Amino acid sequence: MSIELSEAQRAQLGRAALDWALKYFAAQSQLPIYPTVSAKDLSSLLAGSLPVQPEDLTSVMADVQRIADHGRHNGHPRMFGYVQSSASFAGVMGDLIASAINQNVTSWRSAPAPTTIEHQVIEWLKEMVGFGPQGIGVLMSGGSMANFAGLAVALRASTDIDLNQRGVGALPGKPRIYTSSMTHMSIGKAASMLGIGKDAIETLPVNNAFQMDAVALSSWIKADRAAGFHPVCVVATAGDVNTGAIDPLDAIADVCAAHKLWLHVDGSYERSPRDRRTSAAP
Ligand SMILES: Cc1ncc(COP(=O)(O)O)c(C=O)c1O
């Protein structure tokens, strides 16, 4: 049995999938947002023996329908959970094309055009948020991985010790990461994965607008340095997912500059950069 499809089969499958996606997009607002099915019933509905024989297109598309019927319909206009947006149809087509091109975006050599596009998108993002030409970046798969990568960079930048070779045990004091009580759980996870541990997270209380207090932050860092701790970075939040609160970024940046500390900003539920520039922080 071959998994290669003939040109005619590719065309048939492609048209069936596109047709299905178009109908699904049109129907989403009429569907119940959440399926009413138990985990047990769903397991038996979707279970089956290892498929070793080819299935015909009709039965494959029936499977697709059953899977979609028992998912949450994130594109429903009354679906307000999480920070998940509705799928965009342009994105659906983009995924299709990206899968067809099937690039290894590991380096320019492996994927010259996609790597160039990544750099271009970063330039556009810099322009959108008002970063200068000296800004650099990388696209990540999501917020948790971005926080992990940001903290990894901050950790390396916090010392001249070769952490690559010697590990975090060689740090001159116990590491400390400063953030507010509203911070996302992925910050703790990143600390854990980096081997510095969740105990390194110093959680500052917030004011009644759910923002970190930059003055308290400054005194905290000073006291920790005096006590022999090793401050790694400050993690500010720009748009906490629960409240939409934005920490006072300028004041926190000043504290970080004064203490020569890396500032990592975890951006999530942000207003548009234009709104941010025209409205004073509370
Ligand atoms: C402030 C903040 N940071 C990080 C994340 C994690 O993002 P992701 O779910 O893409 O890993 C979220 C997710 O809601 C978030 O709100």
Can you walk me through this structure?
It is a single chain. This protein has 282 residues and is α/β, with parallel strands linked by helices. Helices cover 46% and strands 9% of the residues. The protein has helices at residues 7-27, 39-46, 57-69, 89-101, 112-129, 143-157, 163-166, 185-193, 214-226, 249-258, 273-278; strands at 175-180, 201-204, 230-238, 262-267. The chain has a four-stranded parallel beta sheet, sandwiched between helices. Bound molecules: pyridoxal-5'-phosphate. Pyridoxal-5'-phosphate binds next to α6. Residues 83, 142-144, 147, 184, 186, 237, 240-241, 266, 268 line the site of pyridoxal-5'-phosphate.
Labels describing this entry:
single chain; 282 residues; alpha/beta; Aspartate Aminotransferase, domain 1; Aspartate Aminotransferase, domain 2; 2 domains; four-stranded parallel beta sheet; 11 helices; 4 strands; 46% helix; 9% strand; disordered C terminus; binds pyridoxal-5'-phosphate
Outline of this structure?
With 282 residues, the protein is of the alpha/beta class.
CATH architecture of the largest domain: 3-Layer(aba) Sandwich
State Rg. Answer: 24 Å
Tell me the domain tally. 2
Count of helical segments?
A: 11
Average pLDDT, rounded to a whole number, is 92
CATH topology of the largest domain: Aspartate Aminotransferase, domain 2
The string of secondary-structure elements, in order, is: HHHHHHHEHEHEHEH
**Major sheet description:** 4 strands, parallel
The unreliable regions are 274-282
The CATH superfamily label of the largest domain reads Type I PLP-dependent aspartate aminotransferase-like (Major domain)
Q: Quickly give the structural class.
A: alpha/beta
| Name of the CATH class of the largest domain | Alpha Beta
Termini gap: 65 Å
Name the beta content range: 5-15%
